[in-house]
């Protein structure tokens, strides 16, 4: 996309949730549910340069399963300026593999519970979380959860006991048919945020574009947890399984259209144009979360 107006982001700004896709050189997993078109690291860096960010956190996209080779190659090209969140099999990955990822800039693992948590009991979800924590606890990596707001209710009691940072994707993806404050999981989510026991990504609002009281929801999150929010574009905006209802895995899927500069302007408005808060969500918070100690 072209950037039609300057975003005036602070120096050292991060985009904390982006993907890279290259099926030609890095084939998708056999059971991939959709086929996104190419979105290369070069494309991403051009986008970020126009946007005015200095750092990115690459996040594993589901079509690759637990194959992180494209992410790791991308980290090598970023030469220490980026971070990544990978997808792993806790039963098969070795400590040596984890250590090598750590050296390249991996600082977290992603668990996609959004499409599976409804079929799992509370104990099954907690068992899943614990199995991952056992593998990454020594590295102090984050566990990034793609989970619905309602399902936070199931895991809230366990989160403070995990001993690693917990990051919730896309404002916890509330159900867009009802104001968040009226949904299951809202109270638990806000309590975790207020106690600094989770982080949340201010991203992906097009996933719940009809959500009532979105402004109030975001402003409340920023009010109670200004140190726990990180901004992200969610580039290149995959449609995912929802955009592939017929299950045709051969058809190449285009990306959603999303005005990122307008989203940044909206985020600044949600911050009340408070420069200190803007600095937190774009720079200071991601530096802490992703364990980045560079000069900018």
TrEMBL record:
GO terms for molecular function: hydrolase activity. It holds the Pfam family Amidohydro_2. It comes from the Eukaryota. Residues 14-290 form the Amidohydrolase-related domain. InterPro entries: Amidohydro-rel, Aro_Compnd_Degr_Hydrolases, Metal_Hydrolase. PANTHER family: BARREL METAL-DEPENDENT HYDROLASE, PUTATIVE (AFU_ORTHOLOGUE AFUA_1G16240)-RELATED (PTHR35563). This is Amidohydrolase-related domain-containing protein.
């Amino acid at each position: 996309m072209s950037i039609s107006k300057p975003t005036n982001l602070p120096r050292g700004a991060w985009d904390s949730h982006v993907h890279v896709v290259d099926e030609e050189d890095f084939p998708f997993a056999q059971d991939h549910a959709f086929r996104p078109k190419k979105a290369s690291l070069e494309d991403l860096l051009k986008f970020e340069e126009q946007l005015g960010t200095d750092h990115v956190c690459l996040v594993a996209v589901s079509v690759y399963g637990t194959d992180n080779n494209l992410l790791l190659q991308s980290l090598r090209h970023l030469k220490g300026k980026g971070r990544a969140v990978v997808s792993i099999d806790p039963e098969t990955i070795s400590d040596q593999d984890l250590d090598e990822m750590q050296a390249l800039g991996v600082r977290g693992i992603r668990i996609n519970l959004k499409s599976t948590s409804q079929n799992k009991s509370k104990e099954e979800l907690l068992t899943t979380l614990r199995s991952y924590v056992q593998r990454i606890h020594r590295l102090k990596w984050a566990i990034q959860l793609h989970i619905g707001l309602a399902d936070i209710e199931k895991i809230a009691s366990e989160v403070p006991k995990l001993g690693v940072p917990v990051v919730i994707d896309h404002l916890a993806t509330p159900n867009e048919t009802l104001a968040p404050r009226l949904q299951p999981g809202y109270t638990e989510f806000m309590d975790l945020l207020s106690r600094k026991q989770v982080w949340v990504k201010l991203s992906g609002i097009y996933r719940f574009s009809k959500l009532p009281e979105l402004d109030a929801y975001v402003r409340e999150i920023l009010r109670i947890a200004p140190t726990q929010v990180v901004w992200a574009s969610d580039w290149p905006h995959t449609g995912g399984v929802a955009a592939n209802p017929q299950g045709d895995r051969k058809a190449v899927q285009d990306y959603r259209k999303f005005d990122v500069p307008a989203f940044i302007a909206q985020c600044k408005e949600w911050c009340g144009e408070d420069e200190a808060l803007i600095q937190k969500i774009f720079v200071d918070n991601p530096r802490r979360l992703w364990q980045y100690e560079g000069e900018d």
